[in-house]
Each structure stands twice: as structure tokens, then as C-alpha cells.
Amino acid sequence: MGPLSARLLMQRGRPKSDRLGKIRSLDLSGLKLLSEHLDPKLLSRLTQLQELDLSNNQLETLPANLGLSHLRILRCANNQLGDVTALCQFPQLEELSLEGNPFLTVSDNLKISFLLPKLRKVNGKDASSTSSQVENLNRELTSRVTAHWEKFKAAVSPEEEAEKAQADFVKSAVRDVRYGPESLSEFTQWRVRMISEELVASGGPQVHEADVPERPPKATAAQEPRARPVARKRPDDISLNLSPNKRVCTSALAQVEGSPQDSDGGQPAPDLEPLHFLQCHSKNNSPRDLDTQLWACAFEPAWEEGRPGATSQTVATCGGEAVCVIDCQTGIVLHKYKAPGEEFFSVAWTALTVVTQAGHKKRWSVLAAAGLRGLVRLLHVRAGFCCGVIRAHKKAIATLCFSPTHETHLFTASYDKRIILWDLGVPNHDYDFQASQLLTLDTTSIPLRLCPVASCPDAYLLAGCEGGCCCWDVRLEQPPRRRPCEVEFVFSEGSEAATRRVDGLAFVNEDVVASKGNGLGTICLWSWSQTWGARGKRPTLAVVVLARLQWSPTRLAYFSLSTCPGEGIVLCGDEEGNVWVYDVRHLLTQQPPLPAAPQAPTQILKWPQPWALGQMVTKTMVNTVVANPTFTYLTALTDSNIVAIWKRQ
User: Fold this and answer.
1) Which residue segment(s) compose the domain that 188 sits in?
2) Are residues 141 and 60 in the same domain?
3) How far, in Å, CA of 19 to CA of 559, rounded?
4) Same-domain status, 10 and 97
5) Is the peptide bond between 480 and the residue preceding it cis, with omega within 30 degrees of 0?
6) For residues 186 and 518, what is the distance between their CA atoms, to the nearest angstrom?
7) Fewer CB under 10 Å: which end of the chain, C or N?
8) DSSP 608
9) Of 159-163, 262-266, 431-435, which one has max mean pLDDT?
10) What pLDDT is recorded for position 104?
11) What is the DSSP letter of 158?
């Protein structure tokens, strides 16, 4: 397609007219248009244009000064756009479609909300939740830039040239003012530069509120993906508050049980403060949904940090028909993916190195999510879209995990009593995956948890199942490609021990495994190396127990445990909304004989009993508790559609 002509515009415009100035709607979709084909001189003659469709073209940018000041609806889906700042030329824009532009990120979504104050819908969804996030970010960034200005001004010598000092301030603000997750750094630095330039231009901090764009009255009511903190106002003045006797603020410590330090030499209990309580998985986005069950969460590894001890504050959560990606510091839902008719049970992260059409290498964070329908959905989180679907099983997928040594290898465990190892491959330029099966592992009961053996993840895989704990040889150089369980582990003497459900399984360090089964009231710590070393050729092995941890006496099942190997922490929720925290470092270093009695938890974080819809949520089940590797943030998922985020002080 060459440059546009007036004749073409009149042919594709509505209403039909021989004058460009009378066209109100124009369809230029599917013409293979390049950015240079959009002639501002020609398009500026469309003085009454209100709706423009540029979908399914090859646009990389939108030219400035198109002169379409009355434009209300713009469709730019399925292009190659990499920048959204040119959209500011459409101040009357109310609806915008940008789906299928793979180079746009979460930061671009926030820029759009800031630049277009009258925007009501983005990609067919209500834009008010993003608007609220942007306003909160603006307030915080303005406050931080103002504080930085005062500090900078105090350090500037009177002799320094004012113009140079102002330029230095802008540079230092962009460099030093930080807030929010790394995935939003592009937006925050962009806004920090704007705020700091406005600040020096005005001569002082009186611009504190001026950078927040005006919004129409309806923009304060969130009806689409929005994290709804428990202690803040809800739509229609529905408040979600903590009960008076257990009110939790961002400055108050949570109520805990257990001594701050174990009498046998344990570590002091960490100070954990409740930071956010979010309701972001609601069915039909209803604020009245306190029933959706949340099942799994996983922190994004800090792939791009490149330094020892680096960690992420971004967590993925799943439940109902939604997967959410949340920044733990701010409580902002960075991305929400919905699949109507699905119920998600598990999520797992990996990172893939992709070569672009221009030959550049890019590192993608990819989130795998699966559940009731037996499908694995691969989500390109930074760009915010689903880039692949694998029809993995005919029955529901209970859990999945990536290999810690091969970034494209994914294990899926299904209610069809099979575990499959997949090689996802690397997506091509069109973001298509070509997944292939590497192994099929048969189980005698439904697998519930997967855990590659920490000291040899390429050789053995553990699984907690309805019938017990099993192990498979997963070495790819070994035939055959379909394998039965190699060893079953039992945890006590007796004929019924082999059939006991194991619904919690994780490594505490390279050797020690934490496992849990219902009805026991305990969590078992056992040695992989000592247990495996006594195997011989036996198909059944009794585990070498190192210690037992006291847990809830409930007979209910499917409370998943997790660990922080670097911190020696074991975590588990219970049927009353509590979080059990165990610091087991003293047990890992203690010489035999270890205590025979179950060890008490280091602390129990009590459920803070928030108010919702005029009633107190006195109890809930915490199905899953996961912390990031440095134990800075802890995320607990409940049976009542509440994501609880705690922070260590």
C-alpha cells in the first residue's frame, strides 16, 4: 500500500461524501499501512472525524500533529506500535484499542491513562481502575520528587548557576527517585522527569497536585480488573475494613502467637506487617464476590537483576477464571488475564531468550497458568497478552512447574494420573510456541504437588499425590519415554501409611524435604540423601525423618506448604485463615538426636478479620502461602477471594 489519497479516504469514510470535512468515521484497517503513509496534511482535513480504525496494519508509530482534535474512538489493534506518547494529540479520545501490539508494556498502559484524561475504555475494558492506579502513582512520585527537590536545594551552593542546577536536579531525580516494581520503571522515570521539570519551572513545590490529570466523575468507580485493598473504600461506598479489635494499618504489626524466640535456640520471629488485602479475582468483577477460591501463587524470579541475592516483589496469583500479576509494594495489579469458563489451579514462571526480527536478543518473563480445562496458557507478562496455548491433558491440571535448569522444560500434572514433561521451545517472530512431549510419567493416584529434587533436578522428580509421595527418574538420555513410578515413600510404620495423601511438598535446602499430609497435624522434615541412600532395589522406602513440625489438627486437605530455602523458612496456611511460620535453621544444623516431639511454630499470623459488605469475615481458609526468596514479602491466598500481602520489617 502506498501513501493515502483523498479518493481512498472518501471511499472508506462514513457518511459518504465528496468532502473530507464531512466524514465522521473512517476504516483504514488491513491496508498494510506503514507509519510514513499517514500524511498529516491529508488527514488534518478530516476536521469532523470521530472514529478511526487503523487495525491490522504495520504501524510502528503514529505521526504527530495529525490534526484530529475531535477523535473519540481509535482502533490500532494488531500493529507494531512501540510508543504511545503521540496519543496525547487526541485529547477527546474515549475509546482505544491496542491489542496485538507486542512491543507495548504495562508502563505504556499507564502512560495512556495519564495522557488521555477522558478515556473510558481500553481494549474493550473499563479504564477507571488504571486511572486510579495512575493517580496513586502520581501522588507518591510527586511527593518523592518534592522531597528530593528540598534535599537537592539545600545542598546547592549559592554560587552555582541556576540553570545548571536545575538541569542537574532533573537528572538526579530521574536517577534517584524510585517507586514501584521494575516493570513500571519506564513509566515512573517518565513521570519523574515531567514532574521535576514542572517543579523547577514553577520555582517550588506548589505543583504538588497539578500533575494529576482531571477525570470525569465516573472515573473513580472501578468496575474492571482492580485490586481492592481491604482497608479502603469500595465502589458504591461499600467499605472493607478490619474489625475494631483487630484493626490493621500499614504502621501496625499483625497479631501473632508464639514467642519471639524459641527456647531451644531458634531464631527471633520475623516482624511481619500486613501491607495489602486485595480482592482482584472476582467473578464478573463483582465487589460482592467473597466466594472465589484462590489456589496458587508464585513470585517472579529476578531474571534481569544480575546480582547475587536479587529478588522480585512481583507475584502471580490464580483462582477462578483469572490470573493476576501484583506488585507487592504498591498493591497494584499490573496485569490481569481472564479465561471465561476456566478455573485456574496453578502458575509457574520462566524466562526465555527471544531473537527479534531485527536480530536483537530479548529476555521474556513468561508465566504458565493451568487448571480445570487441561490447557496450559503461556502469558507474556510484560506485554500483557497470551502468546501460546498447549492442549496438555484431557482432564484438569492440578499443578505445574518449570525445570530449574532448563528454562523451556515444563512439568504438568493432571487428574488423568499422568505427569508430562514438555519442551516449549523458543517462540518465533510471530510469538508462536511449538511444544513437544519429552516424557510421560504414570501415577497410581492424582498428583497434587511437583518438586524436582534440589540436588539433582535433571535426574529425579518428586510428586505429592493422593496416594502418597512418589519419585521418577527423569533423565532424558534414558529410555523409555513413558515411565512408571520408580519409588514410593512412606512416612510411618503400618499398612495404611502408603496410601496417605501428600498435599504439601518442598525442599528446605539441597537435602531436606518438607512434606505434609492431611489428618496428621504435623509437617515432616526428612532427608533426601539418607532416604535415597538406603534404597537398593526396593520399590518402597521409609523416609529418614529429621524432625516434625506442629501444625493445625484439621483433617481438611489441600493446604499447600512452601519454603524459603535461603532463609530456612517453612510456611503453611490453615482452615481458620492463619499463617504458620517456622524458622527451622536450628534444626538443619543441630546434631542427632533431634527432638522427638513436634516443634512449635516460630509464630502464627492470625487472620485479621476484615469487614466486607457489612459483615465480618471471621474465618477463611488460607490455601497457599508463598514468600519471595529473601522473605521480604509474604502472599497468602484464601477461599474467600482475598489476597493477603505481608511485609517483613
Assistant:
1) 129-220
2) no
3) 68
4) yes
5) yes
6) 46
7) C
8) -
9) 431-435
10) 85
11) T
Q: Which of 305-309, 382-386, 454-458 has the lowest mean pLDDT?
A: 305-309
Query: pLDDT: is 313 or 285 the higher one?
Result: 313
Domain boundary among 171, 191, 220: 220
Q: What is the DSSP string of 613-642?
A: TTEE-----EEEEEE-TTSSEEEEEETTS-
Does 64 map to a domain? yes
Instruction: Give the model's confidence band at 305: pLDDT under 50 very low, under 70 low, under 90 confident, else very high.
Output: very low
Instruction: Report which listed range, 210-214, 231-235, 480-484, is most confident.
Output: 480-484
Residue 319: which residues within 8 A CB-CB, separation 6 or more?
281, 292, 293, 294, 295, 296, 343, 344, 637, 641
The CATH number of residue 96's host domain is 3.80.10.10
Burial 82-104 (b: 16+ CB within 10 A, else e): eebebbebbeebbbbbbbbbbeb
Number of domains in the chain: 2
pLDDT band at 152 (very low <50, low <70, confident <90, very high): confident
Residue with cell 514467642: 259
> In DSSP terms, which residues pair with 74 in a beta bridge?
52, 96
Of 220, 247, 275, which residue is a domain's last?
Answer: 220
161 and 215, same structural domain? yes
Average pLDDT over all residues of the chain = 83
Q: Determine, yes or no, domain membership for 80.
A: yes
Structural domain includes residue 73: yes
Helix, strand, coil percent content, the chain, rounded in steps of 5: 20, 30, 50
Say yes or no: 97 and 135 in one domain.
no
Which of 169, 167, 70, 84 lies closest to 123 in space, CA to CA? 84
Q: Is the pLDDT of residue 510 over 70?
A: yes
> Cα Rg for the chain, rounded, in angstroms?
28
pLDDT score recorded for residue 357: 64
Residue 580 is predicted with a pLDDT of 97
Q: Is the same domain home to 30 and 96?
A: yes
> Do residues 95 and 16 share a domain?
yes
Give the integer Cα–Cα distance in Å for 157 and 149: 14
pLDDT tens across 583-596, in order?
999 888 877 777 77
Determine, yes or no, domain membership for 295. no
Closest by CA to 644, choosing from 258, 328, 356, is: 328
